[in-house]
Amino acid sequence: xxGVSQDPRHKxxxxxxxxxxxxxxxxxxNRLYWYRQTLGQGPEFxxxxxxxxxxEKSRLLSDRFSAERPKGSFSTLEIQRTEQGDSAMYLCAxxxxxxxxxxxxxxxxxxxxx
Amino acid sequence: DAKTTxxxxxxxxxxxxxxxxxxxxxxxxxxxxxxxxQIHSQGPQYIIHGLKNNETNEMASLIITEDRKSSTLILPHxxxxxxxxxxxxxxxxxxxxxxxTGTSLTVIP
Lengths: 114, 109
Description:
Chain A has no helices and eleven strands. Chain A is mostly beta strands. By secondary structure, chain B is an all-beta fold.
């Protein structure tokens, strides 16, 4: 399977704990995006990378959130000191610079903060 | 960023065409219209996109009005597996996707 993969698919944690999610994009895709989706809402943009450079961050990405893409391949999204309001689906997407068919999304990581 | 307006929900009989409308009255001349769908608990799936001309692929057809202020996604023969939330998105020059709440399409047997 050469699609976008995310790990883990589900994460349950207690408030105050740190969590880290991983995204492996389609191999030739230069751009990688992170979104957050809460129940009944569409995905909301968080940040995106072009190769290893983080080019834009949404104001939704508070100081407790950090994303990296150290070698321009996989990416990690870390949430420190989780809060119940962080409970959501975290989606990763990737695309080529040329765009074309837009972004290809992974299956997401569902985070539940107790 | 151009915003889109879609009906909250729609029903369609199985085997019939599903026509999903979208208004994007503030779209700029170089902004594309994309359609994605999301089946429960899965990531969004690309359907089709266009700029000015109507487009067709194996999944759907996209009809864009001449003034580009609205578009319609057409699923020619809806099946039960087409039940999903459909998002109409205008891709801005910053290449960010801004999803709204989409249209929840239910295909009825």
